[in-house]
Amino acid sequence: MEYEEIVRRLRELVTQPVLRIAPEKMKKVIGAFEDLTPRSKELFVKAKTLIPGGLEHNLSIKHPYPVVIDKALGPYMWDVDGNQYIDFLSCGGPIILGHNYAPIRDAVAEVVQNNQAAHGVTSEYEIKAIEQIKKYVPSVELFRFFASGTESNMAALRVARVFTGKNKIIKIGGSYHGWGDQLVYDMHIPGIKAIESHGIPSSVLKHTLSIPPNNEKKLRRVFKKYENDVAAIIVEPLGGESGTHPIKPGWNQILREVCDENGALLIFDEVVSGFRMAMGGAQEYYNVKPDLTAFGKIITHGFPMCGGVGGREDVMIHFAAGIEGVEKGKKRTYTGGTVTANPITCAACYHTIKAIAETNAIEKAAAAGDRLTKGLEELFEKYNLPFVAFNFKSVLHIETGAPLALKLSDPDIFNQINVRKKVMDEFQAALLTEGVFTLAGSRGYTTMAHTNEIIDQALEAYDRVLQLVA
Predict the structure, then answer these.
(1) What is the DSSP string of 58-109?
(2) Contact at 8 Å (CB) between 72 and 78?
(3) For residue range 182-229, what is the model confidence (pLDDT) as tens digits?
(4) Rounded distance, CA 326 to CA 345, Å?
(5) Residues 143 and 272 both lie in one domain
(6) Residue 316's domain spans which residues?
(7) pLDDT tens digit string along 293-317?
(8) How many C-beta atoms lie closer than 10 Å to residue 119's C-beta?
(9) Tens digit of each residue's pLDDT (9 = 90 or more) over 38-68
(10) What does each C-alpha distance from 110 to 70, 131, 269 come to in angstroms?
(11) What value, to the nearest 5°, has the Cα angle with vertex 264 and ends 259 and 267?
(12) What whole-number distance in Å separates Cα of residue 7 and Cα of residue 212?
């Protein structure tokens, strides 16, 4: 589906009455859910006495309570009650080969048996892993591991400021770049500004500037206003929230041109799109070369302590570590992490990238995404529903309530957000009773393990759920 049609249909969806599962049918769904998941419910009750809100993970399903997962393999997950799910959550994106992929698992197990998990010193796998990244991502001249996508984005901003000597960072409204202080701003819905920035002093956010998606005039206006003080633009190259706010054709090229004209760096947040859109990431897919790239969980296929920043040598050299740091007279970007780049993480990174390339996982996962999206669109048409399904290869968007498609100018917006979020939660609960797991009921990621047969089974489950809509 092309950009113009996605935008048009999302607007149509949020400007008409909300469609949801009929209340009497939703009551039966919740009853079925509770019958299927008594152990998950029991554990959640206990978790609420130990964890704030009973949850650690933003991706966890919260309605009526989280499912507790016991194991995952290939395209499936199983909960503690023994229920099997076709999994499109994919750990929020990093799983593209299928859960618990044996070659990676076995290689990491060998490291665990024969090495120390972390020793604070370089291992050979660190070198081998970075060589793999450089092999496929030409913009990466030097690379530095970090512990997460959030850390990677924080570090990228800092080194951009050190290199340019400038202060301001421009982000695109609605984008998500982790929970670092400077980037918890104007997230989810463009224009929302500091509404979610609790606990962050306004002085921290004064150098974070936000512009609406796809708005070149506003972008140039901001550069003109803060002449010679914009260090970088940071973007999700698919568009905010992994393409929930899609980019218009040529948008990334415009960002590249504006950065070049104003001496600013272009930072691609490829935590989701790296090694999923192409071996060279979204930058290969869109043929735009950033100055810095932030990587995250996909480069280790979900193994922990994973993130990193790669880019131009003249910029990256300011990350130099050790007692002496960078050459005398050059400013240093101070970062650290005792267990960062540990042998387990680096071994997982090396074998993950190698396996993705050797199995053609990107195109296999993309074919599964195309099949699922096409099938969903046919179901929406079959039941005359205004819902929207679109995908960027294996990155899926399945919009029923579509709260993030709202605009601040929409009437009664904050009540609408809550109502439309509830619609997503209800669809997710209904899908779980049918054995399908997605990200918050509206997003997903296919893997090469999602065969045609499995996709068709998922579509049958969606068909049953859509019949419940009032």
Answers:
(1) TTS--SS-PPPEEEEEBTEEEETT--EEEE--GGGTT-SS-BT-HHHHHHHH
(2) yes
(3) 999 999 999 999 999 999 999 999 999 999 999 999 999 999 999 899
(4) 26
(5) yes
(6) 102-359
(7) 999 999 999 999 899 999 999 999 9
(8) 12
(9) 999 999 999 999 999 998 887 777 889 999 9
(10) 23, 21, 32
(11) 80
(12) 14
Start-to-end CA span in the chain (Å)? 27
Question: Is residue 444 within a helix (H) or strand (E), and if so which, with residue range?
Answer: strand 443-445
Measure the CA–CA gap between 88 and 403, rounded to whole angstroms: 20
- CB–CB of 255/172 below 8 Å? no
- The SS3 of residue 316 is helix
Neighbouring C-beta atoms of residue 106, cutoff 10 Å: 10
The three-class DSSP label of residue 87 is strand
The answer to whether the beta carbons of residues 351 and 107 sit under 8 Å apart is yes
Give the phi and the psi of residue 89 in degrees, each rounded to 5: -65, -45
User: Which tokens is 447 given?
Assistant: 């893997």
Sequence-separated (6 or more) residues with CB below 8 Å from residue 114: none
Does residue 52 have a cis peptide bond before it, meaning omega lies within 30 degrees of 0? no
Check whether 406 has a pLDDT greater than 80.
yes
Angle between helical axes of 413-433 and 452-466 (0-180°, round to 10): 120
Q: Which pair of tokens denotes residue 284?
A: 């290969």
385 and 351 in one domain?
no
Helical segments of 62-215, H only: 102-114, 124-136, 149-164, 202-205
Sign of dihedral through CA atoms 246, 251, 256, 261? negative
Residue that is last in its domain, among 329, 359, 389: 359
Q: What is the CATH number of the domain that holds 169?
A: 3.40.640.10
**CATH number for the domain harbouring residue 63:** 3.90.1150.10
Residues 117 and 220 reside in one and the same domain: yes
